[in-house]
């Protein structure tokens, strides 16, 4: 280990710059992984927090947020009559355009019955809607546009008083806004209709078994809620692919930086490696020296990169609060493994160089 550190610290400025290069690559990997995880959490937030373990949509609709669904009239009562059903929560949804300070802002309206549930899971300020026309606004969207509890917002000429601000309902695309289902029915001229039914099985009834019973109902698709969440995520794969591509590029850049560092240190110290070989050092010993150097650079760069990644996430949250960069333990762990893999790949070419050294040839140079 002493020889490995001596080789790396021979030119300390270059060593520091190389560690910084790895740190920036790791920071980008961590940030992009956190961004993808944040997108996943945002697009599935409602279904993950909503009651029930079974979701019923219109036949042919395979997502919650990406398709228009209207359930057959009277379906909620039909669902309640099925043995094994403990609770049914009907929900009506619609994309709406709010007029906020002369700007058109898209939001996703969720109409629910406060007595049954299906509304905001965390109120940061104010209360849930009780009276006709009241809404709960997303707190991030409200902050971005100066909306406060007690203000009135307008949707295509119709005014809604804001009585609460919800948390955890923001998104980089469209935030969630909650109203009473009866009010949304009146606004959309769809009395008694729902977009989604959330079903809770009775105690002792397996969700899979209850889904099998519900599949006999006409005009609907019956999902385990986890399946509908996965279907929603597949809908947004087009957004995830560029993020993954950028993560791969950052990983390759970091690997190249580590590889160049170790390769340069190995070339510059060929004579020392030749001496070690002449003294009887086996290739495995020399491989260990090369790997130790790669691990040292990758470890310092990875730890620094993770710190920079957390700083970048906090900066984004301050500047663009609707964008979630979720740096969960799993994401951080995956980033550390990425740094380790960088070191292993980067050590391969220098190790081959060391293995091919002939002491006699080294001393002739």
Question: Could you explain how this protein is built, in words?
Answer:
The structure is a single chain. This protein is α+β, with helices and mostly antiparallel strands and 365 residues long. It folds into two domains: 170 residues, no CATH class; 145 residues, no CATH class. The protein contains 14 helices and ten strands. The chain has a six-stranded mixed beta barrel with strand order 2-3-8-5-7-6. It is elongated, with a radius of gyration of 29 Å. The model has no long low-confidence stretch (mean pLDDT 85).
Number of helices, where a helix is a run of at least 4 consecutive DSSP H or I residues: 14
Strand content: 15-25%
**What's the mean pLDDT score?**
85
Radius of gyration: 29 Å
Let me know the largest β-sheet. 6 strands, mixed, barrel
What sequence of helices (H) and strands (E) makes up the elements?
HHHEHEEEEHEEEHEHEHHHHHHH
Q: Please, how many domains?
A: 2
How much helix is in the residues?
A: 40-55%
SS-derived structural category = alpha+beta
Strand order of the largest sheet: 2-3-8-5-7-6
Number of DSSP strands? 10
Low-confidence stretches: none
Overall spatial form: elongated
Distance between the termini: 27 Å
Membrane topology: Multi-pass membrane protein
Organism: Meiothermus hypogaeus NBRC 106114
Subcellular location: Cell membrane
Main location: membrane
């Amino acid at each position: 280990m002493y020889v490995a550190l001596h080789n790396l610290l021979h030119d300390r400025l270059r060593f520091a710059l190389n560690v910084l290069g790895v740190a920036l690559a790791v920071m980008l990997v961590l940030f992009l992984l956190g961004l993808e995880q944040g997108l996943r959490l945002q697009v599935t937030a409602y279904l993950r927090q909503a009651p029930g373990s079974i979701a019923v949509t219109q036949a042919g609709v395979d997502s919650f947020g990406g398709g228009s669904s209207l359930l057959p009239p009277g379906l909620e009562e039909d669902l309640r009559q099925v043995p094994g059903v403990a609770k049914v929560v009907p929900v009506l949804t619609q994309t709406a355009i709010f007029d906020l300070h002369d700007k058109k802002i898209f939001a996703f309206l969720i109409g629910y019955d406060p007595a049954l549930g299906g509304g905001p899971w965390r109120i940061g300020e104010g209360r849930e809607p009780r009276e006709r026309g009241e809404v709960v606004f997303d707190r991030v969207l409200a902050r971005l546009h100066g909306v406060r509890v007690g203000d009135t917002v307008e949707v295509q000429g119709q005014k809604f008083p804001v009585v609460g601000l919800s948390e955890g309902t923001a998104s980089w695309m469209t935030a969630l806004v909650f109203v009473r289902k009866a009010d949304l029915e009146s606004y959309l001229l769809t009395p008694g209709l729902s977009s989604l039914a959330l079903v809770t099985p009775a105690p002792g009834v397996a969700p899979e078994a209850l889904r099998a019973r519900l599949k006999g109902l006409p005009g609907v698709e019956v999902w385990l809620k986890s399946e509908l969440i996965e279907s929603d995520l597949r809908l947004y794969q087009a957004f995830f692919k560029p993020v993954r591509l950028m993560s791969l590029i950052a990983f390759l850049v970091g690997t190249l930086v580590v590889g160049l560092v170790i390769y340069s240190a190995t070339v510059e110290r060929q004579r020392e490696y030749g001496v070690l070989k002449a003294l009887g050092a086996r290739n495995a010993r020399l491989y260990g020296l090369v790997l130790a150097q790669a691990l040292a650079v990758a470890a310092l760069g990875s730890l620094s990169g993770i710190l920079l990644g957390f700083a970048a996430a906090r900066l984004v949250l301050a500047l663009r609060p609707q964008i979630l960069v979720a740096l969960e333990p799993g994401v951080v762990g995956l980033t550390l493994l990425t740094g380790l893999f960088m070191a292993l790949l980067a050590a391969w070419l220098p190790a081959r160089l060391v293995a091919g050294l002939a002491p006699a040839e080294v001393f002739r140079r």
